[in-house]
Specification:
The protein has 740 residues and is of the alpha/beta class. It contains 21 helices and 31 strands. It folds into four domains: 2-130, Chloramphenicol Acetyltransferase (2-Layer Sandwich); 156-534, 3-Layer(aba) Sandwich (Rossmann fold); 553-645, ANL, C-terminal domain (GMP Synthetase, Chain A, domain 3, 2-Layer Sandwich); 662-737, Orthogonal Bundle (Non-ribosomal Peptide Synthetase Peptidyl Carrier Protein, Chain A).
């Protein structure tokens, strides 16, 4: 029973399907899946103990610190004794690892697991209650005490209009050498609003906006809101069929666009063209139409990728946008003195966070003056336009950093905002090596309105997604919808004013992802699908995606965890992991890594680094070193553009040693054929070249067919080089011939 409980605790902390504890009799391993019950774990423990020949009195496990981001492995010990009263268990650790309070928390969790598992042995291990009453009170109370008043009866365009009245002649938009005042911006938006209302646009009417990344985009968005409509951003770079689907799915029967974008739109869709002289050409008033919108009307429909390939239209209301964007103005401390870079496509929710908080406070928006920007363009604009606040995609930011060496960011930039992808501590360290500008990380899926949590970095260190913003709740949940304790991985649920309506045309999916709030009656939470853990101060660390948990040869692999391990190496700036099947039936875990500035990636050393914290089945079989990760036009990693690995590049030794006899040559030929390589050295490691257990079976079968000598899988695992396996074949030859 103690072994089953210890296993269960380690399984829940790690999120893995296999764990190992060490005893005086040797290692004891368990293997589970998501449907393993506590009774089955007890039975595994009994078999393992019986095979060991005795019931151990103590168990040792090496685990990462569950309460310290990026914490290294620590030894945890469970000692057991038996008497007439029952079993007595004590947890302790090596000096300088876990403190007394942490050990106490772990012991209480172990006690809860044993008690609940004994009472309900048919309960799945992954659903056993681990949380203490004290931790439950912290989740409901201090961790989610985020109430802050914002007048969210004021709509976005009304907040901008109030700023127009305060500073009408201040510069609202800058794009290259051109600029636009608040007064002019408002007049253009008002003119468009009148044109739209004349065409029947009213409260909640979906209106497509297909405009390039220039000034027309900003007043088009404002104009749709002033008319009462809900804008549906349509990126001109999207394929025509995707745009057609978004228009049909959203119900938008009208599109605001530019003449140069007409060819990208479906034929027959009614359009309203925008240009720089709209209000004079139309002869319309430059004051807005009468308000016709309420805070709970639809303001925005944003399309996100769907797991089925069908985009999902997320519906955001005026109230959620107003509340959230007033909060982000406060978070970023924006004032009329700021110049804010507007980088994101309007099809991404980050665009709203870049546009509206700036216009609410009199800041100037700095627009992109070209449709596609590289890192050099970003650096040039930061300096030339005197940008003070910039938000960038993580992958693009990592390419900007080397360009700042010796030059810095310029004297004006005071805040960098990062969102959308996981940030590596190595990249943060590289950033602070060239500048002291703080990094404000933001996190949220579109379904929770742009940003749900934030975290500020002012020095190198672990990167978290932080704590909830105003009027937001976050909970870490197990798969049965129960709270999990601090330090234990679980799915992040998000609640509060930012929770959106859901997916307009997909009620079943809305019901699946938007669920009843566990402690706020009548409210809903959004199940994010993100795997996180909460630390003792309430801050959240993101571990990856639940839906990137792939099966590889029967084992569940969390790609986010593999990527986190790769970027924790000092030589790696950024990395992604993927399961590829470049040869039919041969699935491999492939890692792509980019060296940190001034460093080289040693593939063998990086693989050994992974082995220190990951189970063997999660260690990449192939590691590809790239100068940079391929990016989409929006600056995110383009996984579809990742190159197929060259197996020949996986040889880990600089000194190639060719086969030296017939046996070595035969084995090398077998490996080359099965691994798809041109040459194999006698000291190359089969598993480092991308081999795995299924391919290993093919190797041993082929060697036996060629030599007549039976070689076991264990022989290959113990001696995974041509040289070692050749010695084993020759030993078997000698054994079979016997004494002369």
């Amino acid at each position: 029973m103690p072994l089953a409980g210890f296993w269960a605790l380690l399984l829940r902390w790690s999120g893995h399907e296999q764990v190992q504890v060490d005893t005086a009799s040797g290692p004891l391993r368990c293997r589970t899946d998501e449907d393993t019950t506590f009774r089955q774990l007890i039975e595994q423990a009994a078999r393992a103990t019986q095979a060991a020949g005795a019931s151990p009195a103590s168990y040792r496990a090496t685990v990462p610190h569950p309460l310290v981001p990026g914490g290294g492995p620590h030894e945890l010990r469970l000692s057991c004794s038996w008497d007439a009263q029952g079993i007595h268990c004590t947890l302790d650790c090596a000096p300088g690892t876990f403190d007394e309070a942490e050990l106490g928390r772990f012991a209480e969790q172990l006690s809860l697991l044993l008690t609940n598992g004994t009472d309900r042995p048919e309960q799945y291990v992954q659903e056993l209650d681990l949380i203490t009453p004290e931790e439950r009170r912290a989740i409901v109370g201090p961790f989610n005490d985020t109430a802050h008043f914002f007048d969210d009866s004021l709509l976005l365009h009304q907040l901008v209009e109030a700023q127009v009245a305060r500073t009408p002649d201040a510069v609202a938009l800058r794009c290259g050498a051109e600029s636009l005042t608040y007064r002019r911006l408002d007049a253009l938006a008002n003119a468009l609003a009148h044109r739209l209302t004349a065409l029947g646009v009213t409260a909640g009417t979906p209106v497509g906006v297909c405009v390039g990344r220039d000034a027309e985009l900003i007043w088009s968005l404002l104009g749709v809101l002033k008319a009462g409509g809900a804008h549906v951003p349509l990126d001109p770079d999207y394929p025509a069929e995707r745009l057609r689907f978004m228009l049909e799915d959203s119900g938008a029967a009208l599109v605001v666009t530019q003449e140069r974008q007409l060819a990208t739109l479906p034929e027959g869709i009614p359009t309203v063209l925008v240009g720089k002289d709209d209000e004079e050409a139309a002869g319309l008033p430059d004051i807005g139409p009468e308000p016709r919108t309420t805070p709970d009307d639809l303001a925005y429909v944003l399309y996100t990728s769907g797991s089925t390939g069908r985009p999902k239209g997320v519906q955001l209301t005026h109230r959620s946008l107003s509340n959230r964007l007033q909060e982000m103005r406060r978070q970023f401390a924006l004032t009329e003195h700021d110049r804010v870079l507007q980088f994101a496509s309007a099809s991404f929710d980050a665009a709203a966070e870049q546009i509206f908080p700036a216009l609410m406070c009199g800041a100037s928006l700095v627009l992109r003056d070209a449709p596609h920007w590289g890192p050099e363009d970003v650096v040039a604009t930061l300096r030339k336009a005197r940008v003070t606040v910039a938000e960038l995609p993580v992958a693009l930011w990592e390419q900007v950093i080397p360009l700042l060496a010796g030059r810095g960011t310029g004297e004006w930039l005071r805040l960098l905002v990062l969102a959308g992808e996981k940030i590596s501590p190595g990249s943060v360290a590289n950033w602070f090596a060239v500048t002291s500008v703080p990094v404000h990380t933001t996190y949220a899926p579109t379904e929770a309105t742009i940003t749900a949590t934030t975290y500020v970095l002012d020095r190198p260190g672990p990167v978290l997604i932080g704590t909830p913003v105003a009027n937001t709740h976050v909970c870490v949940m197990d798969r049965a919808g129960g709270f999990v304790p601090v330090g234990v991985p679980g799915e992040l649920w998000i609640g509060g004013v930012g929770v959106t309506r859901g997916y307009g045309s997909r009620p079943a999916l809305t019901a699946e992802r938007f669920v009843p709030h566990p402690f706020a009656k009548g409210e809903r939470m959004y199940r994010s699908g993100d795997l996180v853990r909460q630390l003792s101060d309430g801050a959240l660390e993101i571990l990856g995606r639940i839906d990137t948990q792939v099966k590889l040869r029967g084992q569940r692999v969390e790609l986010g965890e593999v990527e986190s391990t790769l970027v924790a190496h000092a030589d790696v700036a950024s990395a992604v992991a993927a399961v590829r099947e470049d040869s039919p039936g041969d699935k491999r875990l492939v890692a792509y890594s980019v060296p940190a500035p001034g460093r080289l990636v040693d593939v063998g050393a990086l693989r050994e680094h992974c082995r220190r914290t990951l189970p063997e089945y999660m260690v990449p079989g192939v590691i590809v070193v790239l100068d940079a990760l391929p990016l989409t036009p929006n600056g995110k990693v383009d996984r579809r553009a990742l190159p197929a690995p060259d197996p020949q590049a996986q040889t880990q030794d600089d000194t190639f040693v060719a086969p030296r006899n017939e046996v070595e040559q035969a084995i090398a030929d077998v490996w080359a054929e099965i691994l798809g390589m041109q040459r194999i050295g006698v000291r190359d490691n089969f598993f480092h070249l991308g081999g795995h257990s299924l391919l290993a079976t093919r190797v041993t079968n082929r060697i036996e067919a060629l030599t007549g000598v039976a070689i076991s899988l264990m022989d290959l695992f113990r001696g995974p080089t041509v040289e070692a396996l050749s010695r084993r074949v020759l030993e078997r030859f000698a054994e079979s011939e016997g004494p002369s």
